[in-house]
Amino acid sequence: IWTGLQVIAALAPIACFGTVEALLKQVAFYRGKNDADNLRKVENAVFGTIVIAAALLSAVLVAGAGFLPFKFVQDNLLLTQITAAATAISFFASYYYYRCTAYEDFKLVGIFDSFRSFSTLVCVLLFAWRWGLLGAIIGCLVSELLNWLVVAWVCGKAHGNVHAGFQPALMASAVRVGFPITIIWWVYAIHLSVGRMTTISYLGNAAAGYYGVGSSIAMLFALVPNMIGRVFYPRINAQIGAMAGQNALRHSVVTPTSVITLLMPLAQAVIFFLLPLIYIWFLPKYKEGVVCAQILIFGAFFVGMIRNGANYLIAVDRSEERRVGKECRSRW
Taking the model in full, what pTM does it have? Predict the structure, then answer.
């Protein structure tokens, strides 16, 4: 049941149509150009799309969940509704989180990450101890609400308040920029979700548990290169907006990727041989799934390697548009 609810939470952000990606890309780009007016327009338009996406998700999976023709949803109706409500709230927390990322305010980002981990741990464990699985889901809801309130207040103090803008042209522009970017992550999320649901359907609960634990360990391993990519993404966009030279871009794109390429295989080898001991000491109930985790650890190499290169390809698209536009104007 927990794995199925995770699938809902992983796929629900599709409702935003990639506008958070547009926020990351365009805010950093306009920061590099020192264009405060367009920067604020992007922030407000993206916030408007977040409001609409959260409302739609609530209407479909909270108010209308009882009418959906899915057996899992009907068998776990209340849990699905609470998960959907928590996910809808997480849209707002994610907006402010990535807004700070676009401003390269990584001190606040680090504080938010720490607070989110702490609040999730406390709320989920506290409520799960009292009410079991239902309590764990309620704890996720409470945690997301706390995260939203804290991150919105702190981000507003640091970078100014935003207001939901519902201008169709600006919202369509945000979708047009962010949608192609987010398709990459949609495919990845759907791939993971299909894998989990297939495991549940054909291999049973025990194999699903082994797969879930193994994939969680692999994702933790890939967290470091993904965090490096997250740090450099707004910087690359800002450098392109500021017309930075090739040396600056090489320092932000090639150098970190080269370092990750050298260090990850060494770290994978160490983790590979330590995993049996980790399972015996900390996860004895799942020790039969250690081979699954070892295989997924090696697969995490490719997950960790794509982020920074994808950042550059996404960012350079705007610079190519600008180059073509200048060429057309000069010919005109």
Answer: 0.73
